[in-house]
Design brief:
The chain is built from eight helices and nine strands. Helix content is 34%, strand content 20%. By secondary structure, it is of the alpha/beta class. Helix 5 crosses helix 8. It has one domain: Aminopeptidase (3-Layer(aba) Sandwich), CATH 3.40.630. Bound molecules: zinc ion. Zinc ion binds next to loops.
């Protein structure tokens, strides 16, 4: 038995970090509607499922929140995540009505945009562990960019930048981000009102690549969380 334990990587001996993955919106409130008339909740559920699978492959535990779309309220989401080490809420983005253009898809009138696309990562300055929230958000964003995904610059219109080059913005009044004891981020995978980006967001190969990148970022961020802050500082005493 001892031999078996020694053969395991060091982090297997401690409890693996537990990541709560929240599927944004639900059966009652489907969220935004895509350029082709599909509810955001369907996109969120698909991506969250891929992310959960990939996190497990990265040796992280997963707490599934609202995977059945039946959660009762916004505060119930962080409550369901209690005891985890990190909270990520999965969403897909839309745009204000003023920017929508009419078009038709499969005989139905729909709306779309051409001016906004790309991912966004949001943190709340009211989160009790803002430092970890920001570190994880920037790590995820940096890895997404390295993997070829582009952050949306549109958020500069409404949000204060936390780390704009990596697509990280403040969104302080989101219940799921501040009514929690956990470090937390909200991830907008892309803009489903953008016709081309909608198709990219539905592509299983791209979903898997994006989920793998986000999972790698979360793992990298959480596995270094206990580094002492004084490392490398040469003090006089
Ligand atoms: Zn949403």
């Amino acid at each position: 038995m001892a031999v078996l334990l020694l053969a395991l990587p060091a982090h297997s001996l401690a409890a693996a970090p537990l990541v709560a993955v929240d599927v944004g919106h639900g059966i009652q409130d489907g969220g935004a509607i895509s350029a082709r008339g599909r509810h955001e909740f369907e996109f969120n559920r698909e991506f969250a499922g891929r992310l959960a699978d990939t996190l497990r492959q990265h040796d992280l535990g997963v707490r599934e929140v609202n995977f059945d779309g039946r959660i009762a309220s916004l505060p119930a989401r962080p409550e369901a995540a209690a005891g985890s080490d990190f909270f990520i809420s999965i969403h897909h983005d839309s745009i204000g009505e003023a920017w929508l253009l009419p078009w038709e898809w499969e005989g139905q009138p729909q709306t779309h945009t051409e001016v906004k696309r790309g991912y966004g990562i949001f943190v709340s300055a009211q989160n009790p562990d803002l430092a970890t929230s920001l570190r994880c958000a920037s790590t995820i964003g940096a890895l997404l960019r390295r993997a070829g995904f582009e952050p949306s610059t549109w958020h500069a219109r409404k949000h204060v930048a936390a780390d704009a080059p990596n697509g990280v913005w403040y969104y302080d009044n989101l219940v799921v981000l501040y009514r929690t004891t956990l470090p937390a981020v909200l991830f907008e995978a892309g803009v489903i009102k953008h016709k081309e980006e909608e198709m990219e967001l539905r592509d299983p190969e791209r979903q898997a690549r994006m989920a793998d990148t986000v999972a790698t970022g979360i793992a990298a961020c959480l596995f270094v969380r206990d580094v002492p802050p004084t490392t490398g500082v040469q003090g006089g005493k």
